[in-house]
Write a structure and sequence with these properties.
This protein has about 400 residues and is of the alpha/beta class. The chain is built from 11 helices and 8 strands. An 8-stranded parallel β-sheet has the order 2-1-3-8-7-4-5-6, with helices on both faces. Helix 6 links the parallel strand 4 and strand 5. Helix 1 (about 25-40) packs across helix 9 and helix 8 (about 270-290) packs parallel to helix 9 (about 305-320).
Length: about 400
């Protein structure tokens, strides 16, 4: 194994563009890559552009008729078929949609291949993590589910146990659906309570089909949950299940929309806590999967202040050169931010927070809604893995 990390990047992924005013502004991708470059992280790992996912790869998860509908909408956006979730307010059709979506999927699939084959220890595709796309429909700003495709490719290559852990503020519903009946995959999602946020799924009782009982894990956190509760929930559920499942590869999704500045959700997590979870995922990979780690981006709609910093931290961690949180953001990057957006960029790589949390085993508070959420999840799935709730 080379041990060198890979960063999947092709500037053309910024063509995944739903148009002016849409929250999924591709500038967040471009600004992230420019910040990675400003810190010199592109010299600390191998930057690789993979080809777009082809038809046979897309069909590992997606139906043939759906791929055909995406191709048709890509060629003629005005004729998009709404029955496939295309041409909607969330997923407007745009020229070249198939090509841009398949390119992002190709980066995640190639990341999985590189890690499985030992060409890289870690691989990052921050343009990926489009976890809402279903086998036969677009949803939630997602056309092709690159996260599910990466996992499916690992299985095709011979992986027998894969953990997918998703810390986006929204439920990782598309990935859960793709592997609902597959005992080889454990999907874990920490997200805002379905009662207050799209896609209104991800209840603790969603635990997988009978053939894969306990294979879907959902931690539904109350709106307003901050660093202490979010970290407590992560550490109360994820490490124990990863250890029990004994995966060969860890795939993680790092949506930045848990942040307190995100305009589309209601958690109150800091950049510093997001960085800590990325570090924790890195450590889990080294403890349980011989370091095999595929890290993806996801949601995140504070496109200047949050997303580029969060994912630059992720890249630095994967590269083995973590960015010091207190470091000043390079001035050339802030100039690029202003040139592109007419906004002032953040000054440092931190929110000025030192996240603290209490271990769940230190005591359960029955009146605390976060603790209620944690216990509901542990009761639902821990016994299926031989663990005590």
């Amino acid at each position: 194994m080379s041990g060198r990390a890979q960063l999947m990047w092709d500037e053309a992924v910024t063509g995944y563009d739903f148009g002016p005013g849409h929250p999924m502004d591709p500038v967040r991708l471009a600004l992230t890559m420019r910040l990675v470059e400003a810190y010199g992280l592109d010299r600390e790992l191998q930057v690789t552009a993979a080809p777009a996912a082809g038809e046979s790869t897309l069909r590992l998860v997606h139906r043939e008729d759906y791929i055909a509908a995406v191709r048709a909408a890509s060629a003629d956006p005005a004729a998009a078929d709404g029955s496939y979730g295309l041409g909607t307010a969330d997923d407007p059709a745009f020229a070249g949609m198939h090509e841009a979506s398949a390119l992002i999927a190709g980066q995640s699939v190639a990341a999985a291949e590189a890690v499985w084959r030992g060409e890289a220890l870690h691989a990052v595709n921050f343009a990926g993590g489009l976890h809402h796309a279903m086998p036969g429909a677009a949803a939630g700003f997602c056309v092709y589910n690159d996260a599910a495709l990466a996992v499916a490719r690992l299985l095709e290559l011979g992986a027998e146990r894969v953990v997918y852990a998703d810390v986006d503020v929204h439920h990782g519903d598309g990935v859960q659906a793709a592997f609902w009946e597959d005992p080889r995959v454990l999907t874990i999602s920490l997200h805002e309570d379905p009662r207050t946020l799209f896609p209104q799924t991800g209840w603790p009782g969603e635990t997988g089909a009978a053939a894969a009982e306990g294979g879907a894990v959902n931690v539904a956190l109350p709106a307003g949950t901050g660093d202490a509760g979010w970290l407590r929930a992560f550490h109360a559920v994820v490490p124990q299940l990863v250890a029990a499942f004994r995966p060969q590869v860890l795939v993680t999704q790092h949506g930045a929309d848990t942040h307190f500045e995100d305009p589309l959700a209601h958690l109150a997590v800091s950049l510093d806590a997001q960085r800590e979870v990325a570090e924790a995922c890195h450590a889990l990979a080294h403890t349980h999967t011989a370091g095999r780690w595929v890290a993806l981006g996801g949601g995140g709609y504070a496109v200047v202040d949050v997303v580029p910093r969060t994912w630059t931290h992720l890249v630095g961690i994967a590269a083995g050169h973590p960015v010091e949180p207190a470091s000043a953001v390079p001035e050339e990057w802030r100039a690029e931010v202003f040139r592109r957006t007419r906004q002032l960029g953040p000054l440092r790589m931190t929110d000025g927070v030192v996240p603290g949390w209490r271990d769940f085993d230190s005591g359960y508070d029955p009146a605390d809604r976060v603790d209620q959420a944690i216990l509901a999840t542990r009761r639902a799935v821990f016994p299926a893995h031989g663990l005590l709730p």
